[in-house]
Amino acid sequence: MxxxxxxxxxxxxxxxxxxxxxxxxxxxxxxxxxxxxxFIGGAPHSAQALRARYERLAAGSPDPSRTWWxxxxxxxxxxxxxGTVQATITVTEHERTAEVAWVVGTPWQGRGIATEAARGLVxxxxxxxxxxxxxxxxxxxxxxxxxxxxxGLAPTGHCHDGEIRWELPAxxxxxGMP
Length: 178
Description:
Blueprint: E1 9-10, E2 14-18, H1 24-30, H2 47-59, E3 66-75, E4 80-91, E5 96-104, H3 113-127, E6 132-137, H4 142-150, E7 154-160, E8 163-167
Helix pairs in contact: 1-2, 3-4
C-alpha cells in the first residue's frame, strides 16, 4: 500500500487520521508534557519543530524498503487530537514487518485511548498483510507494556537500546499467512 494513500482507521471512539503538517499546532499542545519523554528521550517539540518533522514524515522514508505510516488520534466525542500512532513498514522478499509505537497526551491518559488506538492499528496492519508486528518498550514503562499486551503483543527475550521487543505471536498472524 502506498503511504500517501492510507486512510483513517476507525474504532469505537477514535479516528486515526493520517498525519498532516496542519496537525502540528494542536499536536504541540497535546505532546507538550516533558513527562511523555521520560522513557523515549528528548523533549517536547515546538509547533514549528513539529511542522518540520511532519513535513519530513509526509515526504516518506528515503529507504525504498521502508514506508512510514503515521496517524494522529482523534477522540470523536470531543473532536480533540489526543496523540499519535505510527508504523514503520519494512518489506523484504519474504515478509512485511511493522515497528509500531503510540503516544497519548497526558490529559487523555488513563482512559483507554492508547489501548484502543493500538488495537485498531494492529488490526488494520493485519488487514494490510503485515506478517510481523513489533514494538520496543522500556522495561519500566508499565503503561506502554499494558497497551502492547492489550493489542495482542507479547514480550520477547530480545532487547535493543535498553528496550524489550514485543511481538504479535505467530498464531495471531493474518488469516492465510504462515
